[in-house]
Amino acid sequence: MSTSLAYLVDDDEAIRDALAWLLNSRGIASRAWSSAESFLGDYDFSMRGCMVLDIRMPGMGGPELFDRLLEIGCRLPAIFLTGHGDVPLAVQAIKKGAFEFIEKPFNDNELVDRVLAAFQLDNDQQRLDAGAELTAVKLSTLSSREREVMELILAGKYNKVIADELGIAMRTVEVHRARIFEKMGVKSAVELAQLLAASR
């Protein structure tokens, strides 16, 4: 898994330097860009951590950058740095899924704490995604008949009812059920239901 970084996007060099120094002093690595356009050009889906975006920049501002990134499926948590008059813009970004906005001049500890919280959110999301991918791989190993049986198991039906509905012997249903549990790595219908719910 890639190392978590704080991706700093701000046109003010003094702020970029101050942020990088502050984060580094707390053991947080960062990379900086002077414009939204340059960050968008460098953005890569393998990036892990969070973005710290200035709301107002020449050309593309932070909210527009955030919109563009959402359109291409970026899920990095975004923290917006806002001047006093930009709070309504920041609130709009929060409604679209931004992680946080912090008003300038910001409290150093508060900013670092929010970056660390955003890192945690990103890590949690990565874990969920990895779990969902693994479940999808397991599901792909089921035969079409096993899938039919699984749907009926998940509907809470007994082996005898499943056998009647599918026109097969009850012993065959038992074999399918055992294979499904084995392939999915579960011991019960309840575990199976939980696994599938967690991956959705």
UniProtKB/TrEMBL annotation:
Signal peptide: none
Residues of the HTH luxR-type domain: 135-200
SMART domains attached to this UniProt entry: HTH_LUXR (SM00421), REC (SM00448)
Keywords of this entry: DNA-binding, Phosphoprotein, Transcription, Transcription regulation, Two-component regulatory system
The protein's name: LuxR family two component transcriptional regulator
Keyword Transcription: yes
Annotated positions of the 4-aspartylphosphate modification: 54
Keyword Transcription regulation: yes
Biological process (GO), any one: regulation of DNA-templated transcription
Gene Ontology MF, one: DNA binding
InterPro entries hit by this protein: CheY-like_superfamily, Sig_transdc_resp-reg_C-effctor, Sig_transdc_resp-reg_receiver, Tscrpt_reg_LuxR_C, WH-like_DNA-bd_sf
Record domain Response regulatory: where: 5-119
